[in-house]
Design a protein that fits this description.
The protein is of the alpha/beta class. About 45% of the residues lie in helices and about 10% in strands.
């Protein structure tokens, strides 16, 4: 059981995809291009798997390229070859226009009002994070938007978190990684950071990963826990 309140960090490092962005609208786009709506989750999980695999052998792959190619392979054989590029573009354009979860705007403003510095660190591009936060009207609440393309490797490699801490000028124990993904929480914990897990409806947290310091349902609850 997580504590009702936790020591306030000086910096919160937010994951972006699925943590801040609501990817559920992509299910409709998958259906539009002839894929079952539930394949949206399998596609994204496979994209992360392949990115992690390439990272483990020393590569720092381009997120958008992996996303588009893995989607193209999923579509191949299910639509005419001449429609492949158009269908991939349909989904990728929708991916680039996602909105935030309902709790994000109020939660971010509440966290920022406490004086906590806010930044993002994504395996995706910083341009995606910029667009997402601009559409939500909360770009100004963030000090810096960071992506692993400018760093040594994808999360959850320790170097990705360490570089973010260096850029922000804080020690690991002064910063909290907040994410919906347990693998991200585990990676940050191994790098010495404090961690906050957003459940967002998840059934539970895997026992084989380092446990988060704080578990909350959404960012509004996180703001209360850290107040």
């Amino acid at each position: 059981m997580s504590p009702t309140h936790a020591k306030t960090p000086s910096l919160i490092v937010f994951d972006v995809n699925e943590t801040l962005s609501d990817m559920s609208p992509l299910a409709e786009k998958f259906e539009t291009v002839g894929l079952p709506p539930h394949e949206r989750e399998a596609w994204f999980a496979g994209l992360l798997r392949d990115g992690f695999s390439l990272t483990s052998v020393g590569e720092n792959p381009d997120f958008a390229q992996l996303a588009a190619e893995s989607l193209r392979l999923r579509l191949r054989g299910r639509c005419p070859e001449q429609d492949l590029d158009r269908h991939v573009d349909t989904v990728m354009m929708a991916f680039g226009q996602l909105g935030v979860h309902p709790d994000v705007v109020a939660g971010i403003r509440s966290l920022r009002s406490t004086g906590i510095r806010l930044v993002t660190l994504s395996n995706g591009s910083t341009s995606l994070a910029e667009g997402l936060l601009e559409r939500a009207g909360i770009t100004a609440e963030f000090e810096k938007l960071m992506g692993v393309a400018d760093g040594p490797a994808w999360k959850p490699t320790a170097g990705s978190y360490r570089r973010a801490l260096e850029v922000c000028g804080v020690q690991a124990d002064q910063a909290m990684l907040v994410a919906v993904h347990p693998w991200d929480i585990d990676g940050a914990a191994r790098a010495g950071m404090r961690t906050g897990w957003l459940r967002r409806g998840a059934a539970g947290y895997p026992s084989y990963f380092h446990a988060p310091e704080v578990e909350v349902d959404d960012l509004l609850e996180l703001a209360v826990a850290l107040a």
